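for ur thesis appendix - Bro-N domain-containing protein. copy paste whatever u need, i formatted it the way the template wanted (i think)
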Amino acid sequence: MTMNTFTAPAQSLAAPLVPTHFYRHKRRLRALLIDGQAWFVVRDLGKLMNAWLEERAVRNLDADQVCRAVIRDDNGLAEEAELMSESGVYATLIHFHHPENRCIRQWLSHSVLPSLRDVALGAPGEVPRRRLLRWEQQQLSVLDWQGQMWVPLGELPQVMRIGS
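the 3d part is after this line
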């Protein structure tokens, strides 16, 4: 099986890309925006889905849905990683059918992707922005607006568990 040799379009050879970290059930998912498009580390997604994706995903996806890129690891060192595009992630969630994948898709759509895009916007302005509050490898999606943090109604049970 030949692996895709497509590389990240905007990648500089000198500097590794810096991923944003997201956590679901204490499992990490690293994500990046490359030329405005969301890309995810395949190994992390596989751990989230409890599936071995690295070889099978490449075989089942189109060439523009996977690439290799150099990213910064947890120690600040350069690491080569297989990345999957947003459309590739959704295709993979459908292909590897499991009931939990619906929850992963919803988490990606409602928390991860909006937060990832907000990070790319830079300094806060007068518009509401999604933020992730992190503690002990957990996170809560909130809305930062007019100097206050707003918790979505669907996240309230999680906030109540944290407070008790």
